[in-house]
Amino acid sequence: MQFQALLFDCDGVLVDSESITNSVLCSMLNESGWAISSEECLSRFIGKTVRSQAALIEAHTGQPLTDAWMAEFYARRNERLSAELVAIDGALAAVQQAHALCAGRIACASGADRAKVEMQLAKVGMEGYFAGRVFSGHEMPRSKPFPDVYLAAADALGVAPAQCLVVEDTVTGVAAGVAAGATVWAYFPSDQGHASADELLAAGASRVFPDMGQLPAMIRAQE
Length: 223
Fold this sequence. Notes:
Helix 1 crosses helix 2. By secondary structure, this protein is α/β, with parallel strands linked by helices. Strands 3-2-1-4-5-6 form a six-stranded parallel β-sheet, with helices on both faces. It is built from ten helices and six strands. It is globular and about 55 Å long.
């Protein structure tokens, strides 16, 4: 097989979390004085950590982005995710088959905080496939679009980045995978709403695909 390891993003690839997180963030930004729409919030923050956008938030709210504000955001976000989160259609089967095809050499490499990633994987029944192989951009020198989290995942699996397939859904994430030296495929459902197929391809994705259930067959086709 062309690929020796698969590195999955989490939000928007494995779990349908982005609309939930965006709703919480948009509400809190409005409460803080930034009259931002849900659509603009998604466009500005998708694939990025909230802390990395501190200067932008402070410029629009006129208030410092405090640890207390972030703690409230995490708490409100996690409460909603715990109640509402579901897996992306076809993602669980795709993870199961990828795990078998790659002899267990799969990892989850997310820009989100570890607690969120591990909670989400557990909620949708995927945690066992990624046990000991969850990597958070919060724990790296730099988060996406820099390649650090994907380089760390590849290194932990003992596979050269050039032999890894990264599955992403955002321009930021695609750029991170490409910068790591991996092949990147972009999951692009028709209702994605935050990037076009052309933008994902321009960021370096070698292909886009609309259905996570198609992923195992696409991988097998590389044999």
